[in-house]
Structure formats: C-alpha cells, structure tokens
Amino acid sequence: MQTVKRLAAVDLGSNSFRLEIGVVEHGVFRRTEYLKETVRQGGGLDENRNLTLPAMEKGWECLARFGERLAGFDAGEVRAVATQTLREARNRDAFLDRANALLGFPINVISGREEARLIYQGVAHMLDDANERRLVMDIGGRSTELILGQGSTPKVMESFRVGSIAWSTRFFPTGQFTERAFEVAEIAAKAVLDEALDLYHPDHWEVAYGSAGTVNAITEVLEAAGWEKGVITRAGLDWLVDKLIAGQSADKVRLAGLRDDRRPIIGGGVSVIRAVFDLLGMDTMHIAPGGLRHGLLCDMMGPHTGLDDLQTRSINRLAVKFNVDRVHGERVARVACALLQQLFTHQSEPERQRLLQKLEWAGKLHEIGVHISHSDSHKHGAYILDNADAMGFSLSEMHRLSLLVLGHRGKLRKLESAMGDPDLVLQMLALRLAVALCHARRDPDMQGLQLAWKKDAQKLSLSGRPGWAQLYPQSTHLLREETTAWAQLTDGLRLDTSAL
C-alpha cells in the first residue's frame, strides 16, 4: 500500500519569507504548493540592531497568512527557521513570541553554519553527480554562505555577513548606480570575504553552484538578455554592471527579467557576487535548483536522513574539543535520565524521548567549561554553548542546553526568569540531583531511590531505602542542600528530601 506523508518548510529569509508544501511518496518529495512574499525584513534593523515595528508587523502579516495555510498540519510535519536578520536582531524574542503564535509552529533561529549545512543538503539532494567536489554559494539579504562538499557531504561551511540588502543599503542608499559605488561595494565585500580565499581556493572544488534569491534574480536578467541558460559568467556580470551604471538608478533601469521586488537590492547583490568571482578566480557558476527549504525537507523526510545522528555527532565533537571527561559526563547523563523518567506523567512518548535526549546531551556537556575555570565552569560552559555553531541545532536549542549547564550547580535565582517552563525545571532538577549523586565520580547506588510528585503538584519527594542515608552521608548532605536551593526561588517547584 502506498504511503503518503505531507510536509511543509518555512524559510524566514532577510529578503523573502517562503513556504513550501508537498507530499512524500515512496521516499520522494513532490511539491504541491509554494508561497513567497517579499518581506525585506533585513532592511528593518535600526542603528541599534532592533527590528522596527513596521518590519515586525510586515513579517507578522505574512506569517498569519502562512499559518492559515498550515492549519491542520501536525507538529512533525512542519519545520520553520529564520536566518541572519533574526540572528542579528536584539529584540528577536519580541518578534518571535507573536510570530510563533501566528504561524502555529515554533520558528527556530539557526546559526550561519547550520544554514550553510541545510543549503548544501538541499542543493546536493537535487544534483546527480555523487562524487564531484562542489562549491555552493548562497547570497541572501544579510549573509552569504559558502560551502565546500563532495556528493551529499558538506565539508567546509562558513557564513559571511555580506548580502544584497545590507550592501544595497550601505553602498547604494539612494539607488544610484555609479562605477565608483560598485568599486567601493566590491572592495568592502572582498574585505569581509578575504578569509575565504584559502578555505575555498579553486584547487578544492571542481564545479561552482549558486543557490536561491540573488543568484536566481541575476540569472533571470542574463537569460532574458540572451546569455547562456543555467549559468552566470564573469562576462555576464560585467555586462550587467555596465547596464546598471548606464541606467543610473534602480528606478530608471529597464532590463527584461528584472522583477520589481529585486530592483532596489540588485546593486548590492551584483557587487557581492562579483567580489566572490574575483576573489576565487571564478569564470562560471552553475545554477542549483535546491536551497535552504529543500534542506529542511530532507531533514524531515525520515530518520534515514540522520538529523539525530548529526546532533549527537555535534555534541561529541564539542566534548572532544573542550576535553570533557567523557566517562563522567555519560555517568551523569545516565543518572539524570533515570531520575527524569520517574517524573513523566502526561507527556507523550515522542515528547518524553525528546526531553530525555536533550537532558542526556546536557549531562554529557555539563563540565564543558571546567578547563577554563573550575569554580565557574558552569558559567563558562553556558557561554560556550550559547555561542557554539553546532550542526543540526537551532540557536534556541543550544540556548536551552546552555541554561541546563548554567543551572547544574550553584544558586537557582540566576535562572528564575526561565523557570516558567515546567519541562526545563524538571530537566534541571534531574541534572542537579545527578551531579550530586555522582560527586565522587563513580556510579552511585540508585537502588531504592525514588523521585515522585507529592499531592501538591509543586512539590517533589526524594526518598531512599532504609539505611541509604547512613551508607552515603556525603551524597545525602548534597541532596539535602538541594532542598535549600529550590526553596530560595520566589515561586515554583519545591524539593523534599526528608525521606532519605
């Protein structure tokens, strides 16, 4: 019997918001609907890097329309991500709180390298040659991603803060096209991209591909003028710059294939792509059919895509990079998960597994900051996780791990603002108790230890078999100190260890 699964991917780019809907039949995705709106949110950041209210409102209006179309979809059928503009925006939480509600699904802000990974995955999925060494480029509104890979495997991924909106706003603020403006814009782009010269040297790839908005917009203009289909050449870019300069301004330029929504940002986009061509000595770039949202769909098309494995590999890489005691980390993770499992009540099985997985990762990495400072390791560990580019993770997922690591020891008042999330509270309690039980860096005696809700839903009781406290006085002392730590919170959960 044929199985059909519907999926949807939402991409909140700096220039456009996109929604792609389709069905998976026999492992192959087939698009059934595609919506795109030019929101240009990347132009809505003020001098303090806050999104202006008009920029937020335009985004909310678009997401309300997307949300209406996604009504009836299940949580596992939709994935939504945001890129550079919301990475930069200091008030992104104010935008996302309402945006999540309007869309009806959580929007994850992803790191530049995670964006690059998804772009490459989407491009590779649509290409045939499994062995060619590729350079993939995606010029967005406020960032440019460059990826080296072979077949389906990305090997080098970087995100650079240059883009069509940012460069148009900065170097073509009035829409005037002059030879000097293009020269200055390209020099500035090369200054940002210069470090890419060694990483992405032509010796490291055989074929260059361009993906998504800016590349497609330039291609449409070149093809309409009779240039070769499916490629962008250095000669074609030179011709296009000459035409833009001759037209004098974005309003006056008349070029077949140049859409009105691209007209205000074409100058910035062309200057960035010319800078890449010059810097890497490129003559030709092929147009790739896939992109970020296709990478999202690949992640959702089943466990064979390996997102869980990718996240686990990222956690393991961080542990190795920061020389974490692997055995002790796994011990704490194992004990914490055993305690959390005793507290599950209403959660579905997928939700339980998700919470356990994240707690396991936090346990493995709880000492990631110890080689910076032993006494303040939890603070340094939280900083590392909040600022790490971990493939497969969104920024919000990494922030949640950072909160758990920050809260695994010390006073809890520093995390009081996050204690409104009941799942996070239970994960943190389990992690703190596990750290106390494993304080001697050996497997604790868990026989008879029970963690259970009392009749008052805001109170937990930790009990042990008769004689446990006398056998393990140090552990008992540390566990009873947790009672004091949780009691110091203004509101929230209380822990009772009197039955030990």
What is the strand and helix layout of this fold?
Elements: E1 4-12, E2 16-25, E3 28-38, H1 53-69, E4 78-82, H2 84-88, H3 92-103, E5 107-109, H4 112-125, E6 133-139, E7 144-150, E8 153-160, H5 164-171, H6 179-193, H7 196-199, E9 207-211, H8 213-224, E10 231-233, H9 234-247, H10 266-280, E11 284-287, H11 292-300, H12 307-321, H13 326-341, H14 349-365, H15 377-387, H16 395-406, H17 422-437, E12 450-453, E13 459-463, H18 468-471, H19 473-487, E14 494-496
Parallel strand pairs: 1-4, 4-5, 6-9, 9-11, 13-14
Antiparallel strand pairs: 1-2, 2-3, 6-7, 7-8, 10-11, 12-13
Short description:
This protein has helices at 53-69, 84-88, 92-103, 112-125, 164-171, 179-193, 196-199, 213-224, 234-247, 266-280, 292-300, 307-321, 326-341, 349-365, 377-387, 395-406, 422-437, 468-471, 473-487; strands at 4-12, 16-25, 28-38, 78-82, 107-109, 133-139, 144-150, 153-160, 207-211, 231-233, 284-287, 450-453, 459-463, 494-496.
